[in-house]
Design a protein that fits this description.
- The protein is mostly helical.
- It has one domain (51-186): Orthogonal Bundle (Tetracycline Repressor, domain 2), CATH 1.10.357.10.
- The protein contains 9 helices and no strands.
- Helix 1 (3-18) packs across helix 4, helix 4 runs antiparallel to helix 5 (75-92) and helix 5 (75-92) packs parallel to helix 8 (145-164).
- The longest helix is centred in the middle third of the chain and has 24 residues, at 111-134.
- 31% of the residues are buried.
Length: 188
């Protein structure tokens, strides 16, 4: 692995284990076996390094989510596909997913929150558009699309947090149960 890849990997592990704010640049350099000028050459700053980590991993999620959130008239199937996509991604990239969850709930003025907010808005908008597109078949959803998207994504992230902590498997059956539970509330 080249220096850039090593820095990304070590920083991701450290940020996920201890939090972005708790990790210093020198600690990242020591873990990666490089000097500060090398880190600054590739990323410019600690924030630049975080943004590179987020961009790299979120690009994979964006591709998968864009495909999963393609609404074709079957809301339960689309929600199931989205849930499976999130669970699969979190299982495949647990260190990254733990980091992005921590950043999502970081203080609003923190660098970490500011770095992740654009990525989180993208996810919310993708899911919100599913509910908007479902309004013609499910008129009772009109005007509720934003609330439904926030609730659905929040529920998925709660299950993922439980899965990352070893309390539940992030499998197809859990996705099915989660979607079924969510649907009980949205069709009323």
């Amino acid at each position: 692995m080249d220096n850039r890849g090593t820095i990304l990997e070590q920083a991701l592990n450290l940020f996920s284990e201890r939090g972005y704010d708790a990790v210093g640049v020198q600690e990242i350099c020591d873990a990666a076996g490089i000097t500060k000028p090398t880190l600054y050459h590739y990323f410019g700053s600690k924030r630049g390094l975080l943004e590179a980590i987020l961009e790299q991993s979120f690009n994979t999620l964006k591709i998968r989510l864009t495909s999963a959130a393609d609404y074709c008239g079957d809301l339960p199937l689309t929600l199931q596909t989205i849930a499976e996509t999130y669970f699969s991604f979190a299982s495949e990239f647990p260190v990254f997913y733990r980091l992005q969850l921590a950043l999502w709930f970081a203080p609003q003025e923190s660098e970490g929150f500011k770095a992740v907010i654009i990525q989180n808005r993208f996810q919310h908008e993708m899911i919100m558009n599913v509910f908007l597109n479902a309004v013609p078949q499910h008129g009772n959803m009109r005007g509720r699309h934003q609330d439904y998207a926030l609730t659905f994504l929040g529920m998925l992230n709660t299950y993922i947090g439980l899965g990352l902590n070893g309390l539940t498997p992030l499998d197809v059956e859990l996705a099915r149960q989660a979607v079924r539970q969510f649907q009980y509330g949205i069709y009323s």
